[in-house]
Amino acid sequence: MNKEKVLQFEITDGQQKMRLDLFLAARLPSVTRAKIKRLIDENYVTLGGEPCKAGHIIRPGELVTVYFPIVKIDHIEPEDIQLDIIYEDESLLVVNKPPGLVVHPAYGNMSGTLVNALMAHCKNLSSVAGDKRPGLVHRLDKDTSGLLVVAKDDVTHVELSRQLSQRKIEREYRAIVWGHLKKKTGTIAASLARSPKDRTKMQINEDGKHAVTHYELVKKFHLMSYVKLYLETGRTHQIRVHMASIGHPVFSDKTYGGRGHQLAGRNHEDTILIKEFLKKYDRQMLHARSLVFVHPQRKELVRFDSPLPADMQMLIQDLETASV
Hints:
It is a single chain. The chain is an alpha+beta fold. The protein folds into three domains: 6-67, Roll (Structural Genomics Hypothetical 15.5 Kd Protein In mrcA-pckA Intergenic Region, Chain A); 85-166, Pseudouridine synthase, CATH 3.30.2350.10; 171-288, Pseudouridine synthase, CATH 3.30.2350. The protein is 22% helix and 26% strand. The strands form three sheets. Strands 5, 6, 7, 8, 9, 12, 13, 14 and 15 form a nine-stranded mixed β-sheet that branches. It has a four-stranded antiparallel β-sheet with strand order 1-4-2-3. The protein has a two-stranded antiparallel ribbon with strand order 10-11. The relative contact order is 0.12.
């Protein structure tokens, strides 16, 4: 049996009785139920060193061991695409993604992605996130720039995903948004779900997934504001939808009202200025600025930072000039 790294769980006295597969699903939030079942069925999960069944009722004192086999990914074509690697070791790497780069292959985008570049760079990537997302612990939109952590093995991936689900990974973003915030700091707590009319878009929906974004004003300009944002949860398009929901969409965001919508009711001078900015800056001004997490192997708190990309720095300079 081709085994890679292992995770072990000792069943404590206070543990509620439950099926083994349900116990593992609770402990491994990033691993699908189907994959957990497959690991058990193929004897990659043992109890006291012996094969076991998914329906086994766990008992105090038992030692559950999960082996993660090395999975060869051969259906994604490696491509020689330049990567801006901030940090790398034997278990993970942190990449600074440029705007415009799609993160993983999908229908209509099977090549030219970050994953294609990672396949050329790394011998191994974790398989937890599925066939088309090897290594990806979290994602960024195509036109959002900044930091991503990538796992090279499943054990590292599981631990990073656990930190994400328990909100122990700190993620700071920077954005340029329309308008002036009423308060210098604030919190947006609004659940998100896919739009029934357009499945590529997200919307505020009380029946959706819980989502919380914290914001802090950095600087106010004419027409716009530069803000810090902290993710408490990490839903698809979370910052973009949340900021639009309070009337401050991210500048140049084509999907959530950050472009042409902002021309309504402007005076002639501002209309000309806005048109110039929109022509010059064609992507949403959103950047994943920093990541802080406990390294799964070193057990140390690590921090990674990425400077603002050139286009956001240029827009800030243009806004400062326009505000004089």
